[in-house]
Structure prediction request, 426 residues.
Amino acid sequence: MENKKTVVYVILDAFRWDYIDEKNTPFLFELTKKSVYAKKLKSSTGFTQRTAMFTGIAPSESDVFTVFYRDPDNSPFKFLHKKSAKLVKLVEKMTRLPHHFFCKLNKLVRDSLIQSNGFRRCRFPIVANIPLNILPQLSLSEDQERGLWYPGSLGKIETLFDVLYKEDKNVSYLMYPIEFCGTTEKVMEGARRYVDDQDDLYLFQFNDSDDLVHFCGVNTQRRRDICRDVDSGLKQLVDLFESKFDDVSLVIIGDHGMSDVHKSLDVERDIKSIAKKNKLCLGKDFLYFLDSTMLRIWWLNNKAKEAFTSLYNKPLYKENGEWVNDELAEKYSIPGPGAKYGDMIWWVNQGVMIEPCFFHPTKNPVKAMHGYKSDYEDMKGFALCRVEGVSPKQIEECTLYDICPTICDAVGVRYPNMNKAKSLLK
Ligand SMILES: [Zn+2]
Prediction:
């Protein structure tokens, strides 16, 4: 059986370009010398890196930008509306009480009620701490009807998976949000289970460099230890494939960087006080969303518009971030403000964190974050590509979009129809 060729694609989540060195990541360090190595990788802006890396286009073109957007008609969480609004409100209040018991209740309610109901229409919604009364207004941009790795998942926009399917290639998708992504143990469990399928492409994701570094910070010994563990996990994975295949091509990336947080801001307080003062009702007059690095507000009528646009001139927002306008959106290749992603989008400066936000629990403060402007050095990942017959070389910088055609070249298939990026192998 050992005569086949395969490609192993590995995402080291939030693995910043400068984490690689001889001492902490010896395996990766050696690999960079044998590969086409892009020292830095500029990520896409927003929170939908997978769409960028599997289509080769920017959020402005795919219109896939943040995980959640406003779409009450097609929300997979619509069923929450049908249940008694009063009951939802009561559960929402209870699950937010600080006692240990209520924290457990919160998780239980979300895991069982929402995840299982939402699951019927959309795969694996991460509803985190999004208020239950907001959820029925929201839809998911990725993995909606079915996972991104299913053919046809983005409609007219062709993905890498559409191409692989059309060209009869076999794929094992074992990265986010599949259960085998995460720790080395999880990744290896998936790898051992599927390695003998002899597929043309395997996709894996190590998450500790994201999940754990959020809570310890970048400039710490703990972070270096985490990187060392990820590096040795990666070695185990590559060793396994090299023992089962004659020819293993590798594409390994850090999909974005990470930056230490030095300031957190409670902007929800402002939203609530404006709403109260103007007698605006959440869900009926306006909607807001707290991504960790973005505040997004939708006006559902003129009264709300008038009230919330007062924030444009508030010094706190000018000093700690920028309001996204069409010019800024164009610069970072993201959709501009509007009905889908928010009529007002405030984007924080590097090192600032919106707290509370809908994703990270306030009781365990975050020490490092990503989702800042993609051209900050701290926000950059790396990429390397080791393919038989391709000479090693080092380039200064590539983009996340370039990964799409690179994987295509490594597997030997054509590029998705919208791809605009350049392969590292050409
Ligand atoms: Zn993260």
User: Anything to note?
Assistant: The longest helix spans residues 221-244. The radius of gyration is 22 Å. Residues 14, 210, 214, 370 surround zinc ion (CB under 6 Å).
